């Protein structure tokens, strides 16, 4: 055993364990369960919310103005600077999106304009959410480096990759990203997946599978949803059910369009990965060697390179998330569209004898707008059974317009917006019968 390998393995253990403890494991704090990283970041946000919100609205407004300037002036400095080009050079469609996002942000910040825009349930809700996420997601992207780039991918990929390969039709190296996406924040998982795709780790199809099938809202979010709905006594069962049904969902959806039709090609168009690993000896020895070599290759650049994606989230995605999230919430709350599209779900719930089927169905389908909207609509329901179904579905649907759907499209992990809608509907109608059966057997 080489000395360099021992040193590398120590680096792997320290970096990975530190990342898991900080980022993934929920602890019981005074204000409830959360990860260490999120707990202290949320305390910071609560203490400085006003300042952060003003700075965020400034960033969103700058994003709109600079992207318009870049669109008009093709010879501007924004086109010549690498990071500026990534952040501000975009199509007319996204420039318009940014301006609408900036407009909603300004109106909500200063409490001016129509009530349906600045209401606490629509635009203001999205601005408050974006304020939190503007700190949480960039920091998650930074600290997630400890888990994703210190050898855990190589170690787990060799040890348990043989499980994910036949189940989800992806390479072994996807194993740790699937796990990280499932238990960590989905937004950070998507940006991290995009980053690794660009580095040649994943094919187009693998990136789409991870982003559209496993980028849930984190253990912390499941805790939050369970707490608000009064289901903490059943948290363990709810998370177990979500995980088991999530595996079934992933198994099915990767075998049907649209995900099935994505190409197994890498970022450079090739069908062979440029990421090489040692595969001699036993799986445990190979895992040890690969993890050690990966950990030894880590430098400060692995952390500083995250500045791109951290900035991308704030300047590129935040205005779009605010606009589309607010628009989706307005449609859900102020129009009858939600009750219309909920009818098929209501029929299934009625057939299964689920209490308050109409409200439960509306809550489930509202998840396409935002994954917290089902919780808001279902909070007053008296039935534990209905609440548990809403809680599990709000996580399993995974796709919601206010963030994940926008991220998938903006990061180009999913080709077309129509694919996003199809994936949402697939996940909703495939998972619903399993969720109903699970809740009736173990929770109600």
Automatic annotation (TrEMBL):
Keywords: Membrane, Transmembrane, Transmembrane helix. The keyword Transmembrane helix applies. The chain crosses the membrane at residues 12-29, 51-72, 93-113, 133-156, 207-229, 235-254, 312-334, 388-408, 420-443. The keyword Membrane applies. This is Arginine transporter. It comes from Vagococcus carniphilus.
């Amino acid at each position: 055993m080489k000395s360099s390998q021992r040193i590398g393995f120590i680096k792997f253990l320290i970096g990975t364990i530190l990342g898991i403890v900080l980022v993934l494991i929920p602890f019981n704090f005074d204000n409830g369960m959360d990860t260490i990283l999120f707990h202290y970041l949320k305390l910071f946000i609560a203490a400085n919310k006003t300042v952060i919100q003003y700075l965020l609205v400034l960033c969103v407004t700058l994003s709109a103005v600079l992207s318009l300037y870049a669109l008009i002036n093709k010879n501007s400095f924004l086109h010549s600077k690498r990071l500026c080009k990534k952040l501000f050079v975009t199509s007319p469609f996204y420039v318009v999106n940014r301006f609408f996002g900036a407009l909603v942000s300004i109106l909500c910040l200063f409490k001016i304009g129509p009530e349906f825009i600045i209401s606490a349930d629509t635009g203001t809700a999205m601005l408050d959410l974006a304020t939190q996420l503007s700190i949480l997601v960039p920091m998650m992207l930074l600290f997630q480096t400890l888990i994703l780039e210190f050898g855990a991918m190589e170690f787990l990929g060799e040890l348990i990759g043989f499980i994910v390969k036949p189940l989800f039709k992806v390479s072994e190296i996807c194993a740790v990203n699937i796990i990280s996406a499932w238990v960590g924040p989905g937004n950070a998982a998507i940006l991290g997946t995009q980053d690794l795709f660009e580095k040649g780790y994943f094919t187009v199809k693998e990136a789409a599978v991870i982003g559209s099938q496993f980028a849930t809202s984190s253990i912390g979010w499941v805790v939050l949803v369970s707490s608000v709905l009064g289901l903490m006594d059943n948290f363990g069962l709810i998370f177990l059910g979500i995980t088991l049904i999530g595996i079934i969902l992933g198994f099915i959806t990767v075998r049907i369009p649209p995900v099935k039709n994505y190409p197994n090609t890498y970022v450079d168009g090739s069908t062979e990965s440029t990421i090489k690993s040692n595969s001699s000896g036993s799986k445990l020895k190979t895992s040890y060697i690969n993890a050690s070599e990966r950990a030894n290759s880590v430098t400060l650049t692995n952390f500083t390179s995250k500045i791109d994606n951290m900035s991308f989230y704030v300047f590129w995605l935040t205005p779009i998330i605010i606009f589309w999230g607010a628009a989706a919430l307005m449609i859900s709350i102020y129009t009858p569209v939600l009750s219309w599209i909920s009818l098929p779900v209501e029929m299934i719930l009625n057939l299964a004898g689920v209490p308050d089927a109409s409200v439960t169905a509306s809550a489930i389908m509202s998840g396409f707008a935002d994954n917290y909207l089902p919780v808001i609509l279902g909070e007053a329901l008296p039935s534990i059974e209905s609440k548990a179904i809403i809680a599990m579905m709000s996580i399993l649907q995974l796709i919601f317009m206010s963030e994940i759907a926008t991220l998938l499209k903006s990061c180009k992990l999913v080709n077309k917006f129509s694919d996003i809608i199809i994936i949402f509907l697939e996940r909703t109608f495939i998972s619903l019968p399993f969720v109903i059966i699970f809740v009736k057997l173990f929770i109600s």
